[in-house]
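User: I'm putting together notes for a lab meeting next week and I want to include a structural view of one of the chains we've been expressing. I don't have a solved structure, so I'd like a prediction I can at least talk through. The sequence is below, exactly as it appears in our construct file.
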Amino acid sequence: MIRLVLAGMVVLGLTGCGGIRYAQHDARAVRSGGELSPVHLEVGGAKKVVTHRQGVALVGGYREGVWLEDESVAEVRYGDGSDRFAPEVYLVGKKEGETWAWYGNRLGSAPRGDQVAGRFRVEVR
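Assistant: Thanks for the context. Below is the predicted structure for the 125-residue chain, given as structure tokens.
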């Protein structure tokens, strides 16, 4: 019985090693649900916005990502662009302009922009 309890504690401890790091915004501000400061990009430039620090992978279907209102202004790239499960999320400027973006589950369907927390402007110059 003691071994089973210890094994469970090790698994929970390793699971806690994972997490989400926001590169452009404070995690508390993202979770509080207000409007966040804008992210500024240059055309062709990229900025990292989210990094996942993976713990022990348990069953689940949530992976933090970014959704854009207008994908003609900027695009979301996961890692090198070939892996939707990559730990890094980047915003890449495509053309001059502005659009709204918000954090959400990249493995689910796109949430509506007016119903999410963590909204911010992406400004491409």
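A couple of points you could mention at the meeting. The chain has a mean pLDDT of 83. The domain at 2-124 is CATH 2.60.40 (Immunoglobulin-like).

User: Perfect, that's what I needed.
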